[in-house]
Write a structure and sequence with these properties.
globular; mainly alpha; 3 helices
């Protein structure tokens, strides 16, 4: 008798070397930031285009954007 398969857990992508700047050029970095900030890659790219790569500025932009979308 075969044992039931265990559910697969999503493995978090590795953290980028620079945690002070949001970058989406590499797929794994984009995935990390998407998971960490709860935003799509497109939302991250829009934020970066508007405010640059600084993590604080990106978070503030995303927070403001979410407030207006609600």
């Amino acid at each position: 008798m075969q044992e039931p398969a265990l559910p697969r857990h999503t493995v978090a992508p590795p953290a980028p070397a620079d945690l002070k700047h949001v970058r989406c050029e590499r797929a794994l970095d984009a995935q990390y930031w998407s998971q960490r900030l709860g935003a799509s890659r497109q939302e991250l790219e829009d934020a970066i285009e508007q405010v640059g790569h600084n993590i604080g500025a990106v978070i503030a932009y995303l927070d403001r954007h979410r407030d207006h979308a609600a």
